[in-house]
Amino acid sequence: xxxxxxxxxxxxxxxxxVVAILATLSVVPVASAFDDVSDQWFAENVMDLADQGIIDGxxxxxxxxxxMNRVEAAKLVVKMxxxxxxxxxxxxxxxxxxxxxxxxxxxGYKYVETAAQLGFVAGFEGMFRPADNVKRxxxxxxxxxxxxxxxxxxxxxxxxxxxxxPEWAEPFVKTAYFWSVVNGYEDETFKVGNYILRGExxxxxxxxxxxxxxxxxxxxxxxxxxxxxxxxxxxxxxxxxxxxSEPVTGGAVTVALSNTPVGNTLPLGAKSAGxxxxxxxxxxxxxxxxxxxxxSGVGAVADFASVAVxxxxxxxxxxxxxxxxxxxxxFSALAxxxxxxxxxxxxxxxxxxxxxxxxxxxxxxxSIVSAADVGSNGTIGGLPVVGSExxxxxxxxxxxxxxxxxxxxxxxxxxxxxECGNFKLTAGANDIELNQISLTHGGTISRSNLANxxxxxxxx
Length: 460
Description:
6-stranded mixed beta sheet, 6 helices, 22 strands, about 30% strand, globular
């Protein structure tokens, strides 16, 4: 979890304390523990699983758009089934020829062996194929077995999908659908043979922990729109309810400049300098999945070490470099839901390269050129949007030194205004303006037990 603050810092040092209320029951909005998970349809599911320890919440990125291999899937379903690490199977003789006892320092071996013993997974002529990616039908089977979903109750249910579901997969897909664990795609297909993405898998695991029988109004010959944690496809004569993973067709999205930063000179080595700010607005709930930015001007892409998209203090994706061939940089798998009357304001920020790489007096402008540069389930209007021109300075950015002030004693659960961290910032030769400080939550306490973070500077 990142907690962000902004402040100005003079050449002298400034000391700060971070205080919080530790609550036993309160649940408060918090930033994601992962740089690449923010407000996507599966974000809440991912964070819930991180809280439970089913997925590793200490990692920087979750990689929700990546495929999931068979070992990762085995770990998820074993964790979902509530098997503690101390109780994992660890037979002397491996069940599968291609799963050595050293896999993942021994833990991968134990997850696979446990999943096999519990019947969640099976091999192929003595092989497990641990590096193979898991398909949607295969994962539906794993979830059905690990969650102990009632297959008998779902036996007479009808699948709404227009594509073929193989005989071996049908009972598992049918059961997962009946219990609202899966929904399918907007085009009324399930795509059994598609590789499952990590974000999709997290959502299925979370739904499998609390299966809900699909309501009768969702079943029938017509089609309806699924709504819930995500958006998806239900069936029936009216509106379906569920927690689908695929967005429905959206409306028109308008892109417009929104207090975009005024052009100025960027010092060498500057971090997270805003160069383009814009809003996304829509009259109908719509999802924006990708945005491509174009750099123009008399300058080189080497002037920038990294480019990233932010919403407020939250970085939506890890930083990327600008293509030297196309002068563009694209961010995908954003899954930004734009609600009516609630614009999403995003900022493109750059890290300027250091002296010796960036060239002084180079000039740059960033823009979104056309509707083809915004991936969405709706139509796109308002483009192009063009930011101000920025130049590269000849002077390097100033330095800030961070140091701990004193050790912190362990707070008690339920205590208020508890100091949970302190630090001292010291500027170098020049005054420094810090626009953001991100503090990362570590340890084993659940984020839901931490609330109301405040940055305090003694004497102010």
